[in-house]
Specification:
The complex is a heterodimer of chains A (about 1000) and B (about 210). With about 1000 residues, chain A is α/β, with parallel strands linked by helices. Chain A has 4 domains: about 115-180 and about 355-425 and about 450-500, Rossmann fold, CATH 3.40.50.740; about 185-345, Dimethylsulfoxide Reductase, domain 2 (3-Layer(aba) Sandwich); about 525-665, Barwin-like endoglucanases, CATH 2.40.40; about 685-775 and about 810-1005, 2-Layer Sandwich (Alpha-Beta Plaits), CATH 3.30.70.20. Chain A has 27 helices and 40 strands. In chain A, helix 6 (about 185-195) runs parallel beside helix 12 (about 320-335). Chain B is about 40% helix and about 5% strand. Chain B has helices at about 5-25, 45-50, 55-60, 75-80, 100-110, 140-145, 150, 170-180, 180-190, 195-200, and strands spanning about 90, 100, 125. In chain B, a hairpin with an 8-residue loop joins strand 1 (about 90) and strand 2. The longest helix of chain B is centred in the N-terminal third of the chain and has 24 residues, at about 5-25. Chain B is extended and about 80 Å long. In chain B, about 20% of the residues are buried. Classes of the chains: A alpha/beta (about 1000), B mainly alpha (about 210). Strand 1 of chain A pairs antiparallel with strand 3 (about 125) of chain B, so a sheet runs across the interface.
Chain lengths: ~1000, ~210
């Protein structure tokens, strides 16, 4: 077609081009439709299951020996959330962070999906029939060697121990070794001697003085939930609460909750206890411990004068048993038995636990080649025992090794046969946590993978051989349990609904193999060793002995003391650090007689100047993608040494430290360690509480004087709602308290009692579980757009915690930790734990600035984030003075992206009532709005109004200290309404006029001598 | 291109594309309204609801208890269909003509074994789907007296179910703000509202974002 220049109008070809383009645009826009989905019905509808509504099962937690009662919430056959069972005597409805995170063990992407056997040097998939047959043949071939077989089982209460011993005895094998790396063995043995039971009940609120000598009862010493419940009740007495003194070389989380810390040298505790009991010389004890004599004198006087008291021991030195016995004697002399220490109401969690000495003996027998077969269930000796014991080499001498572990941990990777156990949420069992009361364990769902309960595997082994087929009369473990349950199947079924039944678990009649009469190796005396520093290894409050490290929630949970995640660190005192020129993050090498370990330094006020401390739990070389190669293991530098009870001694060596040239930034969520008079975490002393409010040192004018009413507190934020929020409109706007919908009658609010909060962080993990919060610190989630020495050169920052280093953490509720005092490096400082989440401000700085109205104030008092509107300008987070808004910098919620936080089957845990957020969306605490709506729907369904305190948020429900109270502050029947009027109540950053819906109650301190 | 043509063509193209985009956005073409998929079994609602008088809740049993309305289990279908006389091929009985139903044959062959026990689930094609950031509670609406047909159309007359409403947010909010007339519930269920019905006030509902978006 020739071009006719100069003519007006559109040429035909051009017209067709435009038409084609326009048509393409229309078709593209108009044809967009979501992918066609299928709806798959049931074949047969299960009874008592309504789709879209959760079904709850009562069961028992097995993450530690305590055996707390659980209620597992399942939806469409998948467990999505765990809560404590309110009727259970151990935890009364609370649940610790590890209990919450056990769902990530159930859905761990690195779990074995089927049994495996080692063929040609590699573990390969086999069938269950082949696995059971192999085990049966191996056992049959033992002959006389069966007497040297070793079975190491995790320590647990309940009938399985007896069942296992019965099974072992049938084959001529000795009783199993029950190992618990976290149990304080010295204390338990001393308790048996002094009180007659391994773990008497501790009543903190009956005490008028608590002295803990290294006893970290808020952490892994004993049953932490039970103890926290009792301790919180004690502190809730405010001015009448007992004073709490902590003695030890390192101020643990428990120590941070104490009113006073006496920083003594490791190994001097025995002298100090004797001095406090009036049996030893105070001056000598003060010198041995490196503490002030006047302080010890005063404390001795306090103990003598204050009854009843509660003195606890948890030292991990070589003389731990002696210290525990001395402490018990002190308690007996002070008349505490029966008042604060109650052997009659003992916890049975630690009965019949084997000591690490038994395990050490078993490993040494393996090393000598005497053991023909070794079987492991729930214990990872290659990792949890010090490297100097050379467990891996010992295992190599055992011709056949079987592991029942569901995870590829360091021990299982060396085994020949892997028969993966069911998770406790998939299997039957029982626990006896309190004498006379059995806690039942039932599957909350069908198996995720092709695993089998170990008890059923063992029964399968006997059934396959006609000679042994009738040895265990039951077809499976469940039938065996029902067979010995009083009342049989019917009573069992009825008891399952509550999760509890009176009765007792089977008791094992097998005796464990007696350990060689030779004394367990005691370490060289501390004072004679080379080195300027005491190397104190302590169990991590979150990760424990390392069993919890493969769960991303727990890797991401900042350590309650140091606020470090995804990283190992070595604690060092600020004065010492300054002297040696060490700063946070500088790598230091700790060298002991047994080995070396290198990690970044962390300057911490809570260690003695001559102590360096390190937590266990990280430094795995296996155990799945979340645990592998993150951090270092302090056990590499620890010699194998036991106290007289057989417990592993953790504070037994002196060390030399050397600064290396390396440096890693500390992966910490801590903004600032001090408040700088901002009044975020406030405290009153007991003496001040007895006086007028205005004379409190931390009283800010205007505290608690404003109204805590429903509705909006700012006219500006109203604009977001347009005519619907306009008080002058004919509807009077939806914020009108008299609005026809009743929406504005409620004012959801929260009260957080800092006197109760211990900083344990159970609330943080509960929130992750409830609200589909992604973890962001895994090594494959970081991005690096510039060449960076830790990046892999392809744009990925592969350091663990890379996102957290950039300040891009994701944590709807965080525990802030502030120190007051101790700027001169002294041990006299106070700690404030402040759980901080979206304050749902009535006059929110984040609401008016959103350009797309993605955040607004709901009529019932919530600051709502509407994820689908958010375009990611992040202006709201800029305005938030509490910095409680978190941005999805990467596609943590998008399965196709590398940073996806829920690799299958972790995504089975996601709560269907909460949106999974994609990249570019802002999120924050919603006061569990899904629970609010669910409760409102349920009340409407049942035709009744919402009852007071009918439901609560996930954080409040989990808290073992009952520090958080949630509810409707506009209705006086709810507890939170009463708490908001408390004398101790204050709002954080009140002077900004944010009118927060969260009220904090001041912590109550008890300084020495009743000082103000 | 000449300068003159450029000044005619480029703005013209932009304006045309803009108009197209604008109009198509408001055309409702972005919703799945009228989506009429073929289902693995041509389940006829008229036979079951109009002819046999079955209530919606017989199969969609959770609609008044749960946010999720529920889909009948295969066993629900077989509960009747392995009792109905001689299966898909029914001879003439009295005045009822003989019938050969290929669909019932599909149900019995593909999804049940010889004794009538269900063995495989029917993969229904989903028609009504709200995005995952919307939490829609069926039971609140059903218990408030909203007739199923008000939102889902006259399903009892649909030989093949299609999406009757757009399910757009604006459509939802309009009803929340303006209110739902109880007389409409009567009308939509093939009834005739009385004067008393018409006099009932419209039922309004909360309309702020956090009612559904969380």
């Amino acid at each position: 077609m020739t071009e006719r220049s100069g003519s007006a109008g559109v040429k035909r070809r051009d017209f067709l081009k435009v038409l084609g383009a326009a048509g393409a645009v229309t078709t593209t826009v108009g044809c967009f439709q979501e992918d066609v989905e299928k709806l798959i019905p049931y074949l047969v509808s299960p009874d008592d299951t309504v789709p879209g509504v959760s079904t709850y099962f009562a069961t028992t937690c097995r993450e530690c020996a305590a055996g707390c009662g659980l209620i597992a919430e399942t939806r469409d056959g998948r467990a999505i959330k765990l809560e404590g069972n309110p009727a259970h005597p151990v935890n009364h409805g609370a649940l610790c962070a590890r209990g919450q995170a056990s769902l990530q063990g159930l859905y761990n992407p690195d779990r074995y999906r089927h049994p495996m056997a080692r063929k040609n040097g590699k573990l390969e998939r086999i069938t269950w029939d082949e696995g059971i047959r192999t085990l049966r043949e191996r056992i049959a071939g033992l002959g006389a060697g069966a007497a040297n077989a070793v079975f190491v089982n995790q320590h647990e209460t309940g009938s399985f121990a007896a069942f296992l011993d019965q099974w072992l005895a049938g084959y001529g094998m000795p009783a199993h070794v029950a190992y618990d790396g976290e149990a304080p063995h010295a204390v338990m043995q001393a308790n048996r001697q002094s009180y007659g039971s391994a773990w008497p009940a501790l009543d903190f609120s009956a005490a008028k003085l608590i002295v803990a000598i290294g006893a970290d009862f808020i952490e892994l010493w004993g049953a932490s939930v039970t103890q926290q419940l009792s301790f919180a009740d004690a502190r809730a007495k405010l001015a009448d609460a007992p004073r709490f003194v902590y003695i030890g070389p390192r101020r643990s989380l428990t120590g941070l909750n104490a009113d006073e810390w006496i920083a003594c040298k490791p190994g001097s505790e025995l002298a100090i206890v004797n001095a406090l009991a009036g049996k030893g010389d105070v001056a000598a004890a003060a010198t041995a411990g490196g503490v002030d004599q006047a302080v010890l004198q005063r404390l001795a006087g306090e103990i003598a004068a204050t009854k009843p008291s509660l003195v606890l021991s948890g030292v991990t030195t070589a003389n731990a048993l002696d210290v525990a016995l001395a402490v018990n004697a002190l308690n007996v002399a002070a008349g505490n038995v029966g008042v604060t220490i109650k052997p009659a109401e003992a916890l049975t969690a630690f009965d019949r636990v084997g000591s690490p000495n038994d395990l050490r003996d078993a490993v040494q027998r393996m090393a000598s080649g005497a053991v023909p077969i070794a079987m492991f269930r729930g214990v990872n000796p290659v990792y949890v025992l010090p490297k100097s014991l050379r467990v891996a080499e010992a295992l190599a001498k055992v011709p056949f090794k079987v592991s029942f572990s569901p995870f590829p941990d360091e021990t299982t990777e060396l085994c020949d046969l892997v028969l993966p156990d069911d998770h406790f949420l998939e299997s039957w069992g029982d626990a006896e946590s309190v004498r006379g009361s059995v806690s039942l364990q039932q599957p909350a769902m069908d198996r995720v993978f092709d695993t089998r309960a170990t008890a059923d595997v063992l029964i399968g082994v006997t059934k396959g051989d006609p000679a042994t087929a009738n040895r265990i009369p039951a077809a499976d473990y469940r039938s065996w349990l029902i067979g010995r349950f009083p009342g049989g199947a019917q009573a069992f079924g009825a008891a399952l609904a509550r999760g509890m039944a009176p009765g007792s678990a089977a008791q094992s009649t097998g005796t464990p193999r007696t350990v060689a009469a030779a004394q367990p190796p005691a370490p060289a005396p501390l004072e004679g060793q080379q080195g300027d520093f005491y190397f104190v290894v302590y169990p991590s409050p979150v990760l424990g002995d390392g069993r919890a490290t493969n769960k991303p929630w727990l890797q991401e949970l900042p350590d309650p003391v140091t606020k470090i995640a995804w990283q190992s660190w070595i604690e060092i005192h600020p004065t010492t650090a300054a002297r040696l020129g060490i700063e946070n993050g500088d790598h230091i090498t700790v060298t002991t007689a047994a080995g070396t370990v290198t990690a970044p330094a962390y300057v911490y006020l809570g260690v003695r100047q001559d102590v360096v401390a390190m937590a266990t739990g990280r430094g795995h070389t296996g155990y799945g993608r979340y645990a592998q190669n993150v951090g270092v293991n302090p056990l590499d530098a620890l010699p194998v040494a036991h106290d007289a009870s057989g417990g592993l001694a953790l504070a037994t060596v002196k060390a030399r430290i050397a600064k290396t040239a390396d440096h890693s930034p500390i992966v910490s969520t801590e903004g600032s360690a001090r408040q700088h008079a901002r009044g975020i975490g406030r405290a009153v002393t007991a003496a001040e509480l007895n006086g007028p409010e205005e004379e409190e040192v931390e009283h800010f004018a205007g505290d608690n004087k404003h109204d805590f009413l429903p509705g909006l507190r700012s006219p500006v934020a109203n604009d977001a709602q347009g005519v619907l929020g306009n008080p002058k409109s004919k509807d009077k706007g939806m914020y009108d308290p008299e609005h026809w919908s009743g929406m504005a009658k409620r004012r959801w609010a929260m009260a957080i009692d800092l006197a109760r909060c211990t900083g344990c962080s159970a609330c943080v993990t509960a929130c992750y579980a409830e609200n589909n919060i992604p973890t962001v610190g895994a090594p494959w989630q970081g991005r690096s757009l510039r060449p960076f020495h830790s990046g892999d050169g392809n744009g990925w920052d592969t350091r663990p915690g890379a996102n957290i280093l950039k300040g891009r953490e994701m944590q709807w509720i965080r525990i802030e930790r502030y120190y007051e005092g101790g700027e001169d490096g002294s041990s006299d400082f106070d700690t404030r734990f402040v759980p901080m989440m979206c304050q749902h401000c009535g006059n929110a700085p984040c609401e008016p600035v959103c350009p797309v109205y993605a955040t607004y104030h709901s009529p019932d008092g919530l600051n709502v984030q509407v994820y689908n509107r958010c375009v990611g300008t992040r202006y709201c987070s800029n305005g938030c003075p509490y910095k409680v808004r978190y941005f999805n910098w990467h596609g943590y919620g998008e399965p196709a992206r590398r940073q996806y936080a829920f690799p299958e089957p972790l995504n089975w845990q996601l709560n269907p009532d909460v949106t999974v957020r994609g990249k570019g969306v802002m999120e924050k605490c919603s006061f569990c709005v899904q629970r609010i709506r669910e409760a409102e729907h349920r009340a409407k369904l049942e035709g009744r109004p919402l009852a007071a305190d009918e439901f609560t948020t996930a954080c409040a429900q989990a808290c073992p200290s009952r520090a958080i109270t949630f509810g409707d502050a506009a209705d006086e029947n709810w507890s939170v309404a009463r708490l908001a009027e408390d004398r101790r109540a204050y709002h954080v950053f009140e002077e900004l006029n944010t009118f927060t819906a969260v009220v904090y109650l001041k912590k109550v301190n008890h300084p020495a001598g009743g000082a103000r | 291109m000449t300068s003159r043509r450029k000044w005619a063509l480029v703005p013209g193209f932009v304006a045309l594309a803009g108009a197209v985009a604008f109009l198509s956005a408001y055309s409702g073409a972005s919703s799945s309204q009228n989506f009429t998929p073929e289902q693995p079994i041509n389940f006829p609602h008229p036979t079951h609801v109009q002819k046999l008088g079955m209530n919606c809740l017989y199969c969609h049993y959770a609609a008044n208890k749960s946010p999720d309305p529920g889909l009948p289990a295969v066993g629900t279908c077989l509960g009747c269909h392995n009792q109905i006389e001689v299966g898909p091929n029914r001879p003439k009985i009295d005045s009822i003509p003989a019938r050969q139903s290929a669909e019932i044959k599909k149900l019995l062959d593909n999804y049940a074994d010889a004794s009538g026990k269900p063995k495989k689930a029917i993969p229904w094609v989903r028609i009504h789907k709200l995005p995952e950031y919307v939490h829609f509670p069926h039971m609140r609406h059903v218990n408030a007296g909203v007739a199923c047909q008000s939102c889902h159309g006259q399903v009892q007359r649909m030989q093949r179910v299609y999406q009757f409403s757009s399910l757009n947010m604006g459509w939802c909010v309009n009803c929340h703000v303006n209110g739902y007339k109880p007389a409409d519930a009567v009308r939509n269920t093939e009834g005739y509202p009385t004067a008393a019905d018409e006099a009932l006030p419209p039922k309004k509902a909360r309309y702020d974002c956090s009612a559904c978006h969380y």
